[in-house]
């Protein structure tokens, strides 16, 4: 909780810089694509494009926020600010550092998801009462992304690796995870790559909740995949932080 408090104190001074990307940009994107482009697309799966794309945009926002909050700030606290080295000189342990940071990321994501959910509800884009579970799905997506990326950031020495992460992981995941069009439209050779992404599982769970339909896989399979990714990322993060701070 002390580590979480430290991140919240910092965010209290910097929150204005994230308002546009966390709250305004997703809504503008939803209006321009969901309503603007949706007027040309029509319906997908028997529902209007706005209602179909809302859960995808919510899940992808959580995914991108989680990655963004787990890159430069983590490396910076190791290499430039050396905050984690200062924490190591106190009773704060490795687990406290990792869990405290991830709790902060989850809090950021949950606030954005709840605000986004309320705004999309005003547009009539929610077709089921199960939509109230989408913030939980957003949290799972965020954790499955933030945990391994936090570990990755703790393992590298130069921030140039983040460009590779954004270019070859985050952007392809967003484009080919069923956010903007059904994964079934992808070539058979490419489609399994979508299934590997935690974002696809989050998108399908969110879409099932907002539309009141069954996801393509059983719910337990989607949730289980996200939990496994999160657990593996946590294990890697513990190991990476411990190795980086062992001296």
Instruction: Please state the structural category.
Output: mainly alpha
Percent range of helical residues: over 70%
Distance between the termini: 25 Å
Strand content: under 5%
Count of the separate structural domains = 1
Multimeric state: single chain
Main sheet: strands, sense, barrel: 2 strands, antiparallel
* Count of helix runs: 11
Order of helices and strands: HHEEHHHHHHHHH
- What global shape is seen? globular
| Strand order in space, largest sheet | 1-2
Calculate the mean pLDDT score and round it. 89
Number of strands: 2
Q: Radius of gyration, Cα only, in angstroms?
A: 18 Å
Unreliable parts: none
Key traits:
globular, mainly alpha, 2% strand, two-stranded antiparallel sheet, 247 residues, 74% helix
Summary of the model, kept short:
The protein has 247 residues and is mostly helical.
Written description of the protein model:
The protein is an all-alpha fold and 247 residues long. The protein has one domain (2-244). It has eleven helices and two strands, in the order ααββααααααααα. The chain has helices spanning 2-14, 19-41, 49-68, 72-79, 83-88, 94-122, 134-155, 161-175, 191-196, 198-211, 219-244; strands at 43-44, 47-48. Strands 1-2 form a two-stranded antiparallel sheet. The longest helix is centred in the middle third of the chain and has 29 residues, at 94-122. 43% of the residues are buried.
